[in-house]
Design goal:
The chain is mainly α. It has 19 helices and two strands. It is 63% helix and 1% strand. It is found in: Cytoplasm.
């Protein structure tokens, strides 16, 4: 139930991995405005927008472990209206974040039985952006590669084969403490999976036992029809209750009790045809362009998110800074430029695809710095990651190391997440004003 394939890939850059895991843990498991089961369901909704079975299956398991209602796993039609109302903003942020407005925010916050609080909404927005961006990383690094139509698969990364996280990081100066924590997480994950299987078997056995008892009681008390009817009704209620509990679990298992995961992600999203479209920048209508000089993460987004969802701003800021500080001298040298120039070219290119512009940047540099195959790869992983395949991963930068390709995917993850947050937090700011 944890992100083994993801941490294995991020393990090439252990300092970043440590920062990522802290943020992931805080979002999902520490005190915050949203209930724990809702957090995992929001993650399911976000991952489903990109058909990312890896993340959907992971959060389905954690949703059940957090005590979530198994009926919710049947799809959006079975969840509370308050949670279902988040679908519109989820859809927009995932594919065309520039369309989000203060009216979307107002609609969710309006006074009603199903209204969101400002703190809850900020938590939800961060979760959505986090999972959308993580889906890009999952597809970009091949973590979803072995996922078949039925949602099964060993979730092995494209490369380096079956190398474990500890082996991948041993040569990168990873601290022994981080390795120890990861080993414990893996052990915990196995224990949790075994516990979940036992729970599933127990629920099924209890359901069958209640049903057998009910039938025996019917036979014995056939002459006392009215009392028997009452007994049948009570028996059915108990059996139905157990059956409800096993609904979500049965969605995750096959006939042999093996964990298989979701078979149909369509039930977790509406308007599946809504996807990314090229941001249309019109010179005569500059209001469409998001100018970082007017609203930036450092000057605006950080303080807002940190005020409404305590400490998350610091964790996100650390993650943004960490990916910017990763060593990239080899990559830059191959491209004939300085590391900072090369990374900024990738970052600004990603933001440009979402309509975010930097007045102090010459965008002609992007075409000079980034070769065509790299640009195609970055755009695919950023905008429609579900279309990424192993051939694309292998073809771009054939001469580059696997760790350098992972580095590019980390830049995509963080640049995309910040882009979504900038649009959402700006809309929340406009609503508050």
């Amino acid at each position: 139930g944890r992100l083994e394939a993801v941490t294995q890939q991020m393990g090439y850059h252990p300092q970043y991995l440590d920062s990522f895991l802290k943020t992931q843990h805080y979002l999902m498991h520490m005190d915050g405005p949203l209930p724990f089961d809702c957090r995992h369901y929001i993650a399911i909704m976000a991952a489903a927008r990109h058909q990312c079975r890896y993340l959907v299956n992971l959060h389905m398991l954690q949703f059940l472990r957090a005590g979530g209602d198994p009926q919710w796993l049947r799809g959006l039609d079975f969840i509370p209206p308050k949670l279902r109302n988040l679908n519109e903003i989820n859809k927009i942020l995932a594919h065309r974040p520039w369309l989000i407005t203060k009216e979307h925010i107002e609609k969710l916050l309006k006074i009603s039985e199903w209204s969101w609080s400002l703190a809850e909404l900020v938590h939800a927005v961060v979760l959505l952006a986090h999972c959308h961006a993580l889906a890009s990383f999952v597809f970009g690094c091949g973590c979803e590669q072995d996922e078949g139509p039925g949602g099964r698969g060993s979730l092995k990364p494209l490369s380096p084969g079956n190398q474990c996280f500890c082996e991948a990081t041993a040569g990168n100066g990873c601290s022994q403490e981080l390795l120890r924590i990861n080993r414990k997480r893996s052990l915990d994950s196995c224990m949790e999976l075994d516990s979940l299987r036992e729970r599933m078997q127990r629920i099924h056995m209890e359901t069958e036992g209640r049903e057998d008892t009910r039938l025996l009681q019917q036979d014995r008390e056939e002459g006392e029809r009215q009392e028997a009817e009452v007994g049948v009704q009570d028996g059915c209620s108990a059996a139905e209750h157990c059956s409800d509990l096993s609904v979500g679990l049965s969605l995750l298992t096959d006939t042999d009790g093996e964990i298989t995961g979701a078979t149909n992600l369509a039930c977790y999203m509406q308007d599946p045809d809504f996807g990314y479209q090229d941001f249309a920048r019109r010179d005569e209508d500059q209001t469409q362009v998001f100018r970082v000089q007017d609203y930036s993460w450092e000057d605006h987004g950080f303080s807002l998110v940190n005020r409404l969802y305590s400490d998350i701003g610091h964790l996100l800021d650390e993650k943004f800074r960490m990916v910017d500080g990763l060593q990239s001298s080899a990559m830059a040298k191959r491209q004939g430029c300085e590391p900072s120039v090369f990374k900024r070219g990738i970052w600004n290119y990603i933001h440009c695809m979402f309509g975010i512009r930097y007045d102090d940047y010459d965008y002609a540099e992007v075409n000079q710095l980034l070769e065509r195959m790299l640009k195609v790869y970055i755009k695919t992983v950023t905008c429609y990651p579900e279309k990424t395949n192993s051939e694309m991963f292998d073809r771009f930068w054939k001469q580059f190391k696997h760790s350098e390709k992972v580095h590019v995917n980390l830049l995509i993850l963080e640049a995309r997440m910040q882009a979504e947050l900038l649009y959402a937090l700006q809309a929340i700011t406009q609503y508050m004003i």
